[in-house]
Backbone:
């Protein structure tokens, strides 16, 4: 499974960030600057391995996104190991493809003849991702696009890794041109791929959040909580016997 997203635009302006500074001497950014243009980051992310395929570009219209996406997806499919004949035949059926689309309300029409399904590609709901030419090309490569629901783009893990990459590349920096922004983003992606981090649902971060919830105590049925357990007044045996 791979996830795709376009992040940005990132501006060539001072970017704030936390920093280790002596007390009373905070880091300062110029309050007057020239806007040096913007850059966007086209990203393909494989959560199972943490691998990122990305391109820092000036803009992401279909004329830029689709050629880049086709080139990267073709390279991904070409690098997959060959399937045994029996497994390839089973994956080339409409029933096998359709089992990955159960529950979807909007489905693109599949090709009459399909190759073996090799890749699941998670998209958001941009109109350019529904282009018939792009969908037919993906189907012909054995790639099935799946779309995050409206308002649920956070389900696309590519957005998570993009936030990490952008923060590493730009936080606390003052790029003076869009070219510099693109160069820093590209360098950060290369650094990430030297030691990629796999992403999973329900990892250590979710466990920390669950433990934090367990330490909260509701107050009177409202949305308010306290981090200290409320003492409960217990009645004595005499009070209970008189009740």
Residues:
């Amino acid at each position: 499974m791979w996830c795709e997203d376009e992040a940005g635009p990132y501006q060539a302006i001072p970017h704030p960030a936390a920093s280790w500074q002596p007390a009373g001497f905070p880091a300062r950014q110029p309050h007057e600057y020239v806007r040096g243009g913007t850059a966007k980051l086209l990203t393909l992310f494989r959560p199972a391995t943490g691998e990122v395929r990305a391109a820092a570009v000036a803009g992401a219209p279909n004329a830029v996104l689709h050629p880049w996406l086709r080139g990267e997806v073709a390279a991904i499919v070409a690098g997959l190991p060959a399937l045994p004949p029996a497994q390839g035949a089973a994956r080339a059926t409409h029933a096998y493809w359709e089992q990955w689309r159960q529950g979807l309300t909007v489905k693109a029409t599949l090709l009459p003849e399909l190759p073996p399904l090799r890749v699941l590609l998670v998209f958001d709901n941009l109109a350019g991702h529904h282009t018939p030419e792009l969908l037919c090309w993906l189907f012909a490569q054995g790639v099935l696009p799946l779309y995050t629901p409206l308002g649920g783009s956070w389900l696309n893990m590519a957005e998570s890794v993009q936030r990490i990459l952008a923060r590493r590349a730009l936080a606390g920096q003052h790029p003076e041109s869009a070219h510099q922004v693109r160069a820093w983003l590209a360098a950060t992606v290369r650094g990430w791929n030297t030691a990629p981090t796999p992403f999973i649902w329900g990892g250590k971060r979710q466990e920390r959040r669950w433990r934090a919830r367990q330490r909260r105590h509701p107050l009177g049925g409202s949305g308010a909580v306290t981090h200290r357990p409320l003492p409960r007044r217990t009645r004595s045996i005499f009070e209970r016997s008189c009740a």
Residues 214-242 form one domain.
